[in-house]
Specification:
Layout (H helix, E strand, L loop, with lengths): L1 H18 L2 E3 L10 E12 L4 E3 L5 H18 L4 E2 L6 E5 L9 E6 L2 E6 L2 H14 L7 E11 L5 E7 L7 H13 L4 E5 L1 E2 L2 E2 L8 H4 L3 E2 L16 E2 L4 H13 L3 E8 L4 H6 L28 H17 L4 E5 L6 H5 L1 H10 L9 H19 L3 E5 L13 E4 L3 H9 L4 E3 L27 H5 L16 E8 L7 H8 L2 H10 L7 H18 L11 E7 L4 E7 L5 E5 L10 E2 L4 E3 L2 E10 L2 E2 L3 E6 L4 E6 L31 E4 L3 E23 L9 E7 L6 E7 L8 E23 L16 E9 L1
Parallel strand pairs: 1-8, 3-4, 3-5, 5-7, 9-10, 9-20, 10-15, 15-16, 16-17, 17-18, 18-19, 19-20
Antiparallel strand pairs: 2-8, 6-7, 6-8, 11-12, 13-14, 21-22, 22-25, 23-24, 23-26, 26-27, 26-28, 29-31, 30-35, 31-34, 31-35, 32-33, 32-34
Helix pairs in contact: 2-3, 4-6, 8-11, 10-11
This protein binds ligand TNX.
The site of ligand TNX has 9 residues, from loops.
């Protein structure tokens, strides 16, 4: 019977096709729902005129119905109608779930039902239906019968937007909120103030926008010392803020406002110099980086100012959470300032092994603000620096950005934490290593790295895991002057992010995600949203394959593309080998691969692989720095060479320690050379090697030194990748010990003088 019904549909579809296009919906959406179960062979035919019914007394549900009307028009050109006692599409409440954002989407031959545990749940069900619809200008949609049961993994699913470094208009912020809604993201963290511009009208302090929202000019490039000479500014009136808050709320996005303090406040000092330690004069900052001009914590007027501002902020934003920043507050001025030192004495603060008295002064400041916010029924969020100083505000929520360890520390202190590590979810970092990428702040977070991020640290005690409220990605905008560029940085990394935030941990699969991404990219084209196109190129994954004795090469591109590759260094064409499955390479090989989408060849990806089949293993005697361990010791002999970016995962970083590794060869071998590379970036405290020692052994216990070299300390700032070879008389060995001594005491020309520097090392070769 079902077969007959199905055939009738196909027949009907063919007939309809003569007049209007007909296409089938596809439930392979992003974020991937928890469960998608096909319910037999039947379909529901969605056509113009279909009615959406909903509980009419409920305004939010009425708004939900209107959203569905506009989404169906936008995606598939369908004209649906909202309202009516019974419709082909039913939106209803009453799903029994402890997760208030849960929904169920059921399609049968009778129609579509979206039932939510709340109006928000219904909204997410609508988003899933919206993303399932085919993209066309008009026609009929065949919806295969299905039951989708879905709910988010995390309750805090955020994206941050910095509007201080560059300003975005109300319309642009609304589009950003639309982007969030499409990805089931429920928090917009709005970074409204910083050294480079104050962006929110505060009635009691009009100078904040009169003076503080404008900078005279902006530095060119990465603090080049040259300025553009063009005044820059912008701010939101309170009326506009209310408008944006309401726009977001309709889309189940809560705006978490941030007023960053006590650092990142130079724009305030330009307006009210008496709030700084020196009294100024100050100006709105014209370059990037961290300013040592911060709010004076010894001045009662400062605290009053902050509370006055926050009073207006809580009046504008209904969010339970208010973000007070707390990051990167340099203490230089506080150490010199009599008022700050006086406050330190009054409070009886003293240096101890963990914290300085100035760090404790910041904790006191934060705790005071927390108390104020609690009196107003709000909760405080701060960047992870608020953990410095042991007076941490008792109920504060910590945003862990420098390192996920801070999220663990917060949870162990019984504080809630939101994970937003710069190693994975900073969308101002590079997403592709192509030289033509627009200037970014640095770092590297590819779509794949974002996708594979796991927010719950594996060593966090299970009973503390509930403290990890969720995940957020940040868009700092120093190098992002336009909204189109902001979209480019965010899309499609936001797709990867939302699966981290929403989809259950065990069900992630990057290849399947790339397939699902194809439809989203077409959707962005339709909506006129800019996005990074490198995702159409080949993304390659290389992994040491112990069993096959070589490097396993997996090539990916978004669905619909074909991949062609060569292994002899020649440029791939559509006549080259066609990629169908992962393969293993041995020895030294250049892999060049090209994806072709809709007949258009994409930029070629190229990688030099140098697998060394002499090596059987590697062990590290000193631990790499916890942020730069990546895949561990094997990174150094995996046949992949790191390039000029030490955060790609190709390099291992050590700080205060040295690289000390024992490499085991498969059998005793004659050797006479050891090579390695270093990556230097002194602006990030990354220095070159100071000494290299090579020792060899036959038994792995008794070593004899065969080469030793010392290198001079660096004398000026620099950034480069350098290859070193140590030659020695041919010797037979099965174990090779390599020691590369890092810069233990940074030279005087550098701001980090006397501190230990990092060393980054990659690809050790033995010949
Ligand atoms: C650090 S993350 C900052 C920002 C910069 C950003 C650039 C944080 C709390 N502070 O002020 O814009 O790095 O990536």
């Amino acid at each position: 019977m079902k077969k007959i019904i199905y055939s009738i549909f196909i027949f009907a579809a063919t007939v309809v096709a003569c007049t209007a296009p007909q296409k089938t919906a596809d439930y392979e959406v992003i974020p991937l729902p928890v469960s998608v179960q096909r319910a037999g062979d039947t379909f529901f035919v969605l056509e113009d005129g279909a009615v959406i019914s909903y509980p009419e007394e409920n305004e939010k549900m009425a708004k939900n119905a209107q959203f569905l009307v506009s989404y169906a028009k936008e995606s598939a050109g369908l004209d649906l109608k909202a309202g009516g006692p019974s419709g082909q599409i039913t939106l209803e409440l009453g799903l029994d779930s402890s997760n208030k954002e849960a929904y169920e989407l059921t399609v049968s031959d009778k129609g579509v039902v979206i039932r939510g545990a709340s109006e928000a749940g219904v909204f997410y069900g609508i988003q899933t239906l919206r993303k399932s619809l085919p993209l066309m200008d008009r026609g009929t949609v065949f919806l295969p019968a299905v039951k989708i049961s879905d709910e988010p993994r995390f309750r805090y699913r955020g994206m941050m937007l910095d509007v201080s470094r560059h300003f975005f208009s109300v319309e642009e912020v609304k589009t950003y909120i639309d982007m969030l809604a499409l990805h089931n993201i429920n928090r917009l963290h709005w970074h409204l103030t910083d050294d480079q511009g104050w962006r929110i009208e505060i009635k009691r302090y009009p100078k904040l926008t009169e003076i503080g929202s404008k900078r005279a000019q902006t530095v060119i490039g990465r603090n080049s010392g040259e300025y553009d000479g063009i005044p820059y500014g912008g701010f939101y009136t309170q009326e506009q803020i209310r408008e944006v808050v309401a726009y977001a709320a309709e889309r189940y996005v809560t705006i978490v406002p941030e007023v960053d303090m006590p650092g990142h406040m130079q724009a305030v000092l330009a307006c009210y110099p008496e709030l700084g330690c020196t009294g100024g004069p100050y100006k709105v900052r014209e370059k990037w980086g961290i300013s040592s001009d911060v709010l004076c914590a010894g001045n009662d007027k400062t605290l009053q100012f902050v509370k006055d501002v926050l009073e207006e902020v809580v009046g504008l934003f209904p969010s339970e959470y208010v973000h007070i920043g707390g990051d990167e507050c340099l203490k230089d001025e506080w150490m010199r300032c009599p008022k700050c030192q006086n406050r330190i004495r009054q409070l009886g603060l003293a240096n101890d092994a963990q914290h300085t008295k100035e760090q404790k002064l910041q904790s006191w400041f934060v705790a005071d603000i927390e108390h104020f916010l609690e009196e107003h029924g709000r909760r405080l969020i701060g960047w992870d620096e608020i953990l410095e100083g042991d007076l941490v505000a008792p109920n504060a929520t910590v945003m862990a950005w420098r390192d996920l360890r801070y999220g663990m520390t917060a949870a162990r202190l019984h504080h809630d934490a939101i994970m937003t590590p710069s190693s994975h979810v900073y969308f101002d970092h590079y997403q592709d290593l192509d030289q033509n990428e627009p200037l970014a702040i640095g770092g590297y977070s590819s779509v794949g790295r974002v996708y594979n991020y796991e927010p719950i640290p594996s060593d966090l005690e299970p009973e503390l895991r509930h403290h990890i409220l969720g995940v957020q990605a940040n868009l700092w905008t120093e190098y992002i002057p336009t909204f189109s560029h902001a979209q480019y940085m965010v899309l499609p990394r936001m797709d990867a992010l939302c699966e981290v935030q929403w989809t259950p941990a065990g069900t992630k699969d990057y290849g399947a995600f790339c397939n699902r991404l194809n439809k989203m990219l077409h959707f962005y084209d339709k909506l006129g949203w800019n996005y990074a196109k490198h995702i159409y190129k080949v993304s390659a994954d290389f992994a040491l394959d112990q069993e096959m004795e070589g490097i396993k090469v997996s090539l990916n591109t978004v669905k619909g593309g074909e991949i062609y590759y060569t292994l002899d260094g020649s440029e791939p064409t559509i006549k080259s080998l066609r990629y169908t499955a992962p393969f293993v390479v041995q020895d030294k090989v250049v892999v060049k691969a090209m994806a072709v989408h809709d007949g258009i060849p994409q930029t070629v990806m190229s990688e030099n692989l140098s697998y060394d089949n002499k090596i059987s293993g590697i062990e590290l005697l000193q631990e790499p720095h916890r942020s730069y361990r990546f895949n561990g010791a094997s990174t150094l002999v995996d046949g992949l060479t790191g390039m000029q970016n030490y955060r790609t995962g190709r390099w291992l970083g050590f700080c205060g320690k040295d690289l000390e590794a024992i490499i085991k060869l498969k059998s005793e071998t004659e050797i006479s050379k050891v090579g390695f590379n270093t990556c230097v970036a002194t602006s990030d405290w990354v220095f070159d090697v100071r000494q290299a020692i090579i020792e060899v052994s036959e038994d792995g216990i008794h070593f004899k030194k065969v080469a030793e070299e010392s290198y001079p300390a660096m004398t000026s700032n620099d950034a480069y990748v350098k290859h070193y070879d140590l030659l020695f008389e041919t010797v037979k060995a099965q174990y090779v010990k390599v020691t590369l001594v890092s810069e233990h005491s940074i030279p005087a020309f550098h701001g980090g003088k006397d501190h230990p520097g990092f060393i980054f090392v990659d690809e050790i070769s033995i010949d």
